[in-house]
Specification:
Length: 135
């Protein structure tokens, strides 16, 4: 019998405000959708709502699942970390706080981009596709 594959699960949210999608710059100098780790006893849509509020200071209505990807993050020449990433389209409802300046992983940079700007950003291709498909 094969051993179970245990992976961290990251839930992302494609939040659109004024025709632009919010993105976060990560520690690898890549842009990605905001979001975070699925917590114990939390449903993925609840994670998306919580993360949108914590990171972007917005209340959202969680919509359709827009993608799933087993992401292999290189951490050195011979090692990688695997994370199962899922993303939801999230509709902006109202601003309830400020955009996060520092998070669990240190300094945070969040910006809203037009889809034309997204085309030229340093980001994993699956995020770019998810943002386009979520419009």
């Amino acid at each position: 019998m094969a051993a179970a594959l245990l992976l961290p699960i990251s839930v992302k949210c494609a939040v659109f405000e004024n025709g632009k999608v919010w993105l976060r710059k990560n520690e690898r100098d890549e842009w990605e959708l905001p979001g975070g780790k699925l917590e114990e006893n939390e449903q993925p849509d609840q994670t998306a709502m919580r993360e949108a509020k914590e990171e972007l200071g917005v209340k959202v209505k969680v919509g359709n699942l827009i993608g799933a990807n087993l992401y292999k993050i290189p951490v050195s020449n011979d090692k990688e970390v695997r994370v199962f990433v899922i993303a939801y389209r999230c509709d902006f409802v109202e601003r309830v706080g400020d955009v996060e300046q520092a998070g669990e992983a240190g300094a945070a940079e969040f910006r809203a981009f037009s889809m034309k700007e997204v085309e030229s950003l340093n980001m994993p291709e699956f995020y770019r596709g998810w943002a386009k498909n979520a419009i």
